[in-house]
Design goal:
It is built from 11 helices and 25 strands. By secondary structure, it is of the alpha+beta class. α5 crosses α6.
Length: 484
């Protein structure tokens, strides 16, 4: 009786854990490219709306699932810039109804490609309601498909490293510059340009995380057939995808999708059922451009840099893959928290300034506000309509001595490094932009230094101390999971 009560209390506390009864795994890749009646459709990833009329390339969501007779956990990574909580929750509810997997055991995350249809409002990009409904159904389908393909499995993980593709994009300035709020108080600048912005910046304002973490699932039989691979790397995105044959913008899964294709060939050439997935780590302040160096002598062709980065990360992942030790029996547990975090809003003077800017002679160009100050004035007025606090969903998944944390933010790399440092597990990594979208998550120190990622907007609105509360919650969850 006591054990049943203990389990019930753990479930109520947001933790579920059961003895392992033999592992099983499944995977799926589902096409999420818009249908013809969704066009023209806006992409996300820019301060201005960019519309796509058609796409010769395809985008997908990819699902990896593992569990036993009692507990199954699922990870779906979507070729999308941002997935709002409304879509993630709806997809999970539908998938839970089809599979019986508790919604709290399902992760739905955006990869953060900047070349996919907008799924949530972001700056001046607005989603197609028809595509939002379609995307929700497709994500749920992918989870259900993976569940239908569950088969006996064994699991292993390893960590490689690729420091060649990650650079902190925030640099300390040597002379003041004007931010969108007519202030010159920012101490750092994002993406200052090659050669340190002509001497206007001095050094990066943060570290990087070169880890390439991988989780591998394969058949326990004599053939050791690869089933799926889930990787994690802390690089924002690459960009510059291939255009259509007519030279127009089209969709791209960026280096995340290219990595999946390369790893599928490396690990399971000829096995069409194998699914490789790359999730985004804590890359809120990370890109793949070394601004301390001169610009490259040769200009990259469209898609070339994506392929180069994907190949580099895949090489590191493959090197780690060769070292994996597999397990057929291990504890599986899930913990979750929902924090209520404050929303940063403008004071009366800031609201007055925003009204004055938008009431001026600012002109629209192709339906977009052109001036940065006007764009942020619009964001200021939109944030006024937000509640004073918002729910922020956190999740931790234990697979033996591996812990996977998920955050719904563009999380700064030092936060991810801190979570690895305080983790009681042998291996940990974080999937960002998961189970919703709550903007950037800088540290309090980075907030003090300012810069794009801290500028008040729908892309950055959580309270200054949000990261402290997030880390504290993850510490509690990981320690609880470790004790089970």
């Amino acid at each position: 009786m006591k054990s049943k009560i203990a389990i019930a209390l753990l479930v109520l506390a947001g933790i579920s854990t059961f003895a392992n009864a033999g592992l099983k795994a499944g995977a799926d890749i589902t096409d999420i490219t818009p249908l013809s009646d969704h066009y023209p459709i806006s992409t996300a990833g820019s301060m201005k709306a960019v519309f796509v009329d058609d796409s010769e390339s395809r985008i997908h969501c990819r699902t990896v699932m593992v569990g036993n007779e009692s507990t199954i956990v699922s990870f779906t990574i979507v070729d999308s810039c941002l997935i709002p909580r409304s879509i993630a929750d709806a997809a999970k509810r539908i998938a839970s109804g089809k599979t019986g997997i508790p919604a709290g055991h399902i992760t739905v995350a955006a990869s953060h490609t900047h070349s996919a249809p907008a799924a949530t409002p972001a700056f001046q990009s607005n989603p197609s309601v028809g595509y939002q409904i379609y995307l929700t159904e497709k994500i749920a389908d992918s989870i259900a498909n993976a569940h239908a393909r569950l088969e006996p499995a064994e699991i292993g993980w390893a960590v490689g490293t690729d420091p060649t593709q990650v650079f902190n994009r925030r640099w300390f300035v040597t002379e003041p510059y004007l931010n969108p709020f007519s202030e010159t108080t920012d101490k750092v600048r994002m993406n200052p340009g090659y050669n340190r912005g002509g001497g206007k910046v001095s050094k990066p304002a943060g570290p990087v995380d070169p880890d390439v973490s991988i989780l591998s699932l394969r058949s326990p039989g004599p053939d050791k057939k690869p089933i799926a691979l889930l990787a994690n790397y802390s690089l924002h995105y690459v960009g510059n995808p291939v255009r259509t044959s007519k030279g127009k913008s089209q969709f791209s899964g960026d280096y995340f999708a290219a990595f999946a294709e390369v790893m599928a060939e490396k690990v399971a050439s000829g096995n069409s059922d194998f699914v490789a997935v790359l999730s985004n780590g804590t890359s809120g302040d990370i890109n793949n451009i070394d601004y301390s160096s001169p610009p490259p002598e040769t200009r990259y062709q469209p898609g070339e840099k994506i392929r180069e980065v994907a190949a580099s990360v895949a090489d590191a992942a493959m090197e780690a893959y060769q070292t994996i030790e597999y397990h057929q029996d291990l504890p599986i547990a899930v913990a979750s928290r929902e924090l209520q975090l404050g929303v940063r809003k403008a004071d009366p003077a800031g609201l007055k300034r925003a009204h004055e800017i938008l009431g001026s002679t600012e002109q629209l160009i192709n339906g977009n506000l052109s001036a940065r100050e006007a764009i942020y004035a619009r964001e200021t007025l939109q944030l006024r309509e937000f509640p004073d606090t918002v729910p922020v969903r956190l999740q931790s998944v234990r697979l033996g001595d591996l812990c996977i944390n998920t955050t719904p933010c563009e999380t700064f790399v030092e936060i991810g490094l801190e979570l690895k440092k305080i983790s009681p597990f042998g291996t940990s990594f974080t999937i960002e932009l998961a189970n919703g979208y709550n903007g950037y998550l800088p540290t309090p120190q980075q907030h003090e230094w300012g810069g794009y990622e801290t500028w008040r907007a729908k892309s950055s609105y959580l309270e200054v101390n949000a990261s402290v509360k997030v880390v504290d919650a993850f510490k509690e969850m990981m320690n609880e999971l470790k004790s089970k």
